[in-house]
From TrEMBL:
Transmembrane residue ranges: 165-182
Keywords carried by this UniProt record: Membrane, Metal-binding, Transmembrane, Transmembrane helix, Zinc, Zinc-finger
Stretches for region Disordered: 107-158
InterPro entries documented for this protein: Znf_PMZ, Znf_SWIM
Residue ranges constituting the SWIM-type domain according to the UniProt record: 32-64
Keyword Metal-binding: yes
Molecular function as annotated in GO: zinc ion binding
Name the record gives this protein: SWIM-type domain-containing protein
UniProt source species: Arachis hypogaea (Peanut)
Compositional bias (Basic residues): 112-124
Any Pfam family: SWIM
Amino acid sequence: MKLERRDRSAGECRLYWLAAQTYEVVNGLNKFVVDLSAHECSCRKWQLSSIPCTHAISCINFKGLDIDAFVDDCYKKPAYVKCYDSVINPLNVPDLWEKTNFDDVMPPPYRKPSHRPVKKRKRGPDKAPDSSQSHLSRRGQIQRCSNCGESRHKRGGFKKSSDKRIIYTLFGIVFSMFLVCFS
């Protein structure tokens, strides 16, 4: 799949022969050096994946060679078959296992945490803290009471029997009477 995709885009490259197996490949504004004998390209995709890059495929097609010969053996079927060639033998039930003089291996003890489980993931010390866009910080702002407007407390700490509450209530009544009289 990856090889087919690279083969399609290899037609966009222009080739310039440099030496026996070395080419300069121009792809748009970029220039790359491809060495077919060393299986190297200056874009380094061929070295990293062991699959010829677009630039290498354009050189291979120009020489009329088989692309599959330049793909690493680990991507071919014999390597895949060799990985799964060994047999995993089945085991008997634990009661029929051979007894040894060594202690049995036990799992580590499970300790139930005494606190509520943490749902937010822990970030590493080298990671920056998550700046969430859904929560705005009130840090640096002066918080005021919505009833009286003072900055010493908020609405929950407002004393309802204080003199200021009565003054503000009287002021509101007088102001509303003032509006009624002049309208």
